[in-house]
Amino acid sequence: MLRVLLTNDDGIDAEGLQTLRRALVALDEIELAVVAPDENQSATGRSISIRRPLWVQEVPFDDGTVGFACDGTPVDSVRLAALGLIEGFEPDLIVSGINHGANLGDDITYSGTVAAALEGIVLGIPGIAVSQLSQAGDVDHRAGRRFEFELAAAFVARIVDRLDDVPLPTGTLLNVNVPPVVEGVEVTRLGKRVYQDRLDLIDEDTGRKLYRVYGDVPLHDDEPGTDLAAVTANRIAVTPLHFDLTAEHGLEGLREFDLAQLLDEAG
């Protein structure tokens, strides 16, 4: 029996989560638990709530099962489940999504969806983060408000169903992005976003100024093999991610600084 924790960053009532929940419930040999934020927590990244306790409320679903909503972040939701919120349930897999909008390239560092799956890696639990591009087809996560989640949910359910036969490598999560029109699937690496943000003064008040920082839709490189190129070509992008951010190629160069000598000089 595979014990799966389902969470997201759009909130427990979000259509993406509910569509994926129904697909996972239909699998054999799956014990599913749902713990998710009680409201939208998009772009919270790996934020956690350390200055206050967390409210948790049981939420009934239309099929008679229940989930749990917390007033914290996606990472808080994973922590609650991993620490024993549901008696007798210890997750073997974290599934996060389906996000309403893409999580591609550099954007994953902001994503609450990816952060929830990444928290599984921190805890030694494999994870899958899944995001759906809008029907507008733009790779900007803010573009469009119409989504179709059924194919993404069915595809991820098939992945989950195969994990007994093809387990994920230790310390790895899968970041899955599904375009609105699907013509294939590709294993990819992260692409490169080109942000076009600018500082716009919107209003002024006594002693205060109101600025807009995040403006134009970001561009991206169409380098073959990247997640951004794949979804642009109507292919599902499946990108393996891990937590180790160490720049291995920079270790030797850093040693040339002779840090011990710099410490002596500082003293």
From TrEMBL:
The keyword Mitochondrion does not apply. Keywords: Cytoplasm, Hydrolase, Metal-binding, Nucleotide-binding. A divalent metal cation binds at residues 9-10, 42, 99. Its main location: cytoplasm. SUPFAM superfamilies: SurE-like. One of its GO terms (molecular function) is 3'-nucleotidase activity. Residues 4-196 form the Survival protein SurE-like phosphatase/nucleotidase domain. It holds the Pfam family SurE. The keyword Lyase does not apply. It catalyses: a ribonucleoside 5'-phosphate + H2O = a ribonucleoside + phosphate. Binds 1 divalent metal cation per subunit. It is found in: Cytoplasm. InterPro entries: SurE (IPR030048), SurE-like_Pase/nucleotidase (IPR002828), SurE-like_sf (IPR036523). Its cofactor is a divalent metal cation. Its EC number is 3.1.3.5. Nucleotidase that shows phosphatase activity on nucleoside 5'-monophosphates. Belongs to the SurE nucleotidase family. This is 5'-nucleotidase SurE. It comes from Solirubrobacter deserti. The gene is surE.
